[in-house]
Amino acid sequence: MAETLSAGIALIERAAADLARVRQEIAHVIVGQDEVIEGVLICLIAGGHVLLEGVPGLGKTTLLRTLARVLALQYSRIQFTPDLMPGDIVGSVIMDDEHGHKTFRFQPGPIFANLVLADEINRATPKTQSALLEAMQERTVTSGSTTYTLEPPFLVMATQNPIEMEGTYPLPEAQLDRFLMKILVNFPSRADLSRIVDLTTKSDETELRQVLDRAQIAELKAISRQVIVAPHVQDYAIELIMATQPGIKGSPEITNKYIRYGSSPRGAQALIECGRVLALIRGRLNLSLDDVTAVAPAVLRHRIILNFDAHADGYTTESILQKILENAQS
Question: pLDDT tens, 176-230?
Fold first, then answer.
């Protein structure tokens, strides 16, 4: 028993050290966005997808491109526009003419990569958005009668601009639920901005070294699934989800007054999955209440819908989630 425990601790410590090295390497290029880096890494290891919201120029594109270099993964970028078609994402069948002999073959689209940046996803029509979201959910692309499997690891990082909303097609709530996390990218501090300018205006490009590969990422995912979830921690995650449901017994007053729809069951699954990876990053064998609390805002902010009274009284999703977390901890 002692030997098994010792081996488990050594495995967790090595995994935590590997993830720390990944974060340190990314920090050579991305400055002042530690929470964003951590969130994207959590989604990658947990096998989910992430939605980033922030104004242009905060390094969202650079983050995923840097992560691809550090992990030796294939990276692609899709710029979403109103005229983008589903075939521009998943690929299409084209005709080849070789020596007068015509054949049809499937030309894979940019979705066939390990790390896919869906830039300004709300710029494309719902038909095009659904093509991406189907590939995200099923991890497959179907063309005609043939189904193609997307090679793991597979992470879609979608971005939204919260300011310029004219001519956009906001993602429906049911489609937002497919993202494991929604992370807000904030403006850097004065010190971080000074360092960003120093890094980006020098003549030499920052050299990055590979830290992990695909096999090691798969191993980290397997290790995260071994993180122990005690019954009381799972109950806490479930209570958080139930606290977002208006009109049920025991719901907080603020929920009944200001929330129209609460989180789906996917929210409870996401709290456990993301919390396990965070526990791994922190070098522990067990999921704690603090881990669940730490990931809760990013996991739940896109899974609850406020009513008109909340907007009229000046409440936001963030402020209501904070109240729910405070009630759960008291």
Answer: 888 999 999 888 888 878 887 877 777 566 778 899 999 999 999 999 999 999 9
Of the candidates 226, 250, 269, which is a domain's last residue?
Answer: 226
Q: pTM of this prediction?
A: 0.91
Q: What is the mean pLDDT of residues 270-289?
A: 94
8 A C-beta contact, residue 74 and residue 114: yes
Q: How many domains does the chain have?
A: 2
Task: Using the 3D structure, point to which of 207, 226, 245 is the last residue of a domain.
Answer: 226
CATH number for 289: 1.10.8.80
**pLDDT beyond 90 at 141:** no
Is the N-terminal amide bond of 82 cis, ω within 30° of 0? no
